[in-house]
Structures are given as structure tokens and as C-alpha cells.
Amino acid sequence: MKGLVQLIWTVLLTGVTLGAQQSTAGQPQQSDVFVSGTNGYHTYRIPSLLVSRKGTLLAFCEGRKNSRSDSGDIDLLCRRSEDGGRTWSSQQVIWDDKENTCGNPCPVVDRQSGTIWLPMTWNRGDDTEAQIKANAGKDTRRVRLSRSDDDGITWSKPAEITQTAKQPAWCWYATGPGVGIQLEKGASRGRLVIPCDHSVAASADNPAGYSSHVIISDDHGETWKLGGVISPQVNECQVVELADGTLMINMRNYDRSKTTRAIATSADGGLTWSKVTHDPALVEPICQASFIRYTWPGPGGKSRLLFSNPASASKRIEMTVRLSYDEGRTWPVGKLLYPGPSAYSCLAALPDGDIACLYEMGENHSYEKIAFARFGLKWLTGDENVIGKTSSM
User: Fold this and answer.
1) DSSP labels, 145-192
2) pLDDT tens-digit profile of 336-352?
């Protein structure tokens, strides 16, 4: 009965037809990409969705072998779609390091070469986040990097880049999760930027010990270095390039005097960042979110930024997609995608103008599925006319 009630609410509130594979008249259509308890994995979590230079969709996630836990035997997985998410390839294991933890996908595509870079993290499966944060683990959190030069069909063995991507005093570390971007404006045009986070010892102004940062590459992914740090009380994050070349980073917020997303900006391509502010329109329950550019402003066109997260101050429920026309200053458009339990998400602008959201959902807060939702701009705004250059990300 509970499942039937949830289905009715989904159809009534969002227009979603579960199990469908194709966008119809702009209405959201959903299909299951990763289902917990299948293909040898207890749970699938941490979705990432990337569109390659050829237009292929790559859906990444963590496959958790034995439980829903953030630690333990976890593999990094991928499925590909060459038809806009209507059908998907079989599940591919990109990285399996036996009983250890391999995860936090945050891919980026280089527009010039077509290479897909996949930053991710590793730790011993018997080390928990709490132990690593306290420097009490058997090892620490390490940063790895894989690449694909054939549209995500094959991947290189992950190379370690911890020495250049992580400061020695940092304990916990996460890439993304979500996607990185390649800059299109100004002096830093072509730079690859990966949003990340880390932890240091707790302090009076940063009780959780978390901060955000970026890593950058100016040689098309061959080498990586640290960019600027954003602090305090923030971690998992996503970054967007604004129309004037400024970067805006949108972060998970641990300051519970403000139950909204944290924001900072950079005028130098991510090398330094402004002080943290908070966006009162973007409510959150302490959770990851997605933040991307959909279209650039142009002659007769509109700037459009997209944001998705569970839009509740206290619970991971009500996956909502929002739109901003003014470079993230306001969010006048918002639409409920799924009313039930939902958590991490990743948005993508598809080559045909549709929008996609790969997100965690279920009925019992158990992360039963990672679903792929595809919808048109008309469903979100009532506006079918997508004027303006779409983001190449």
C-alpha cells in the first residue's frame, strides 16, 4: 500500500511515469539505472552524470558490496548510453581494489581533446571517515585519477595524484561528487576545475573541521595542482562559470544556524575565493547538490543555471530542480521532481536541449535506486524556446 501511495503522489505531483524511457511533451520520464541488491552490490550510491564530447551519457556511481556504509568494499562503476538515456550499457567496473573503498566520482571532459578525466578517492576499507578525520586510521584518504580516450569505453589504471592535490595536514578528502568543468571565458580559458573538499582539525569557527577547495589543470589534465580553499563549515560542492568569467561554488553547509546552501566566488579561475555567504532560496538538510550551467546568454538568449537537491531543511526528501536567469542571484523557478526520500543528484544538459537528473531515490531512506530522469525545459518553466548556446559541459 505504501508503494502504491508513493506512486500516486509521484504521478500527481511531478508528471513522472515510472519505467518510461523517453521524454514526451517535456514531461519527466524516469528509468532505473542502478538498483540496490543487483549485480552483486548491496547498495549503489553517489551518482555522477557526464555528457561526452560525442554526446554519450556516462552514469557513474559507487557500488557498495556488503552494506550501505560509506566505508568497506566499494567499487567505482559506470554505465554508458548512446541514445540520450533511453537504453544503457551493462555495468562496467572502472576500479575495484579488493576490500578497499574506491569512489567519489567527479569527471570532466576536455573539449579540445575529448579525453574524459575521472578524479576519485581511495581509502582502506577498514578505515572509517571518523577515523581518518581524527588521524586514527591505518592509512589516509588518497586522490586518484583515471582517463578515457575512447568515449568512456575503456579506462586507464587510476594514478595517484595525492602529492599535488592534497595538503599534508588534510585528513578526510573528497572529489566532488558530481562533475568538474572546463572554463570557457577569460585568461583561464581551457582550465579544468574539479570541486573537492577536505577536513582539518576542528576549531572554534569550524567545529566540523570541513572546508571546500578546487584542484585545477592548465595542461588538459596531464598535471594537477591545488586551487583556493573555502572555509569554514562547508564541504561537498559543485562549481559553475558565470557569464563574466567569475566562478561560483555552491557548497554543502554545516552551519545549522542557516539551513541553506553556502556560496563563494572566484575572480581568478579558482585560485582564490571570497568569503562564504548563504543563499536563502536554496534550503538543504545537509546533503550534496548539483549545480550546472544550462545555457549561456547571447543575442536574444537567456542565461540559465540549474540546481537540484532534496529541498527540505531537515530531511532528505523532495528532490527539486531549480532555475536561475540571473547568474545564481535568484531562483524564481522550481519544480518537484520526486516527493519521496531522495539525496545525492547530478544534472546534465543533453545535446538535444533536454535536461537530465541522475539521483538517489527510494521509499524508505535506504537508497534503493539511482534513477535517471529526463525532461524538457517546458516542464520546468513552461518555456519551450531554448535560445542561447547550451553549455558544453
Assistant:
1) EEEESSTTSS-PPPEE-HHHHS-TT---EEE-SS--EE--SSTTTT-E
2) 999 999 999 999 999 99
Grid coordinates given for 60: 557513474
pLDDT at 76 over 50: yes
CATH number of 2-381: 2.120.10.10
Among 134, 128, 132, 107, residue whose Cα is nearest residue 51: 107
Distance CA 79, CA 93 (A): 9
CA atoms of 239 and 108, how far apart (whole Å): 12
Domain coordinates of the chain in residue numbers?
Answer: 2-381
Q: pLDDT tens for residues 22-74? A: 444 567 999 999 999 999 999 999 999 999 999 999 999 999 999 999 999 99
Q: Is 359 exposed, middle or buried (0-12, 13-18, 19+ CB in 10 A)?
A: buried
Angle in degrees, CA 328, 219, 101, rounded to 5:
75
Per-residue pLDDT tens digits for 296-305: 998 877 999 9
Q: What gap in Å lies between CA 318 and CA 305, rounded to an integer?
A: 20
Distance separating alpha carbons of residues 41 and 246, to the nearest angstrom: 41
* CB-CB contact of 360 with 32 (8 Å): no
Number of other CB atoms surrounding residue 314 within 10 Å: 10
Measure the CA–CA gap between 191 and 207, rounded to whole angstroms. 33
pTM of the model: 0.91
Of 135-139, 183-187, 298-302, the range with the lowest mean pLDDT is 298-302
Name the grid cell of 385: 524556446
Copy the grid coordinates of residue 363.
521509499
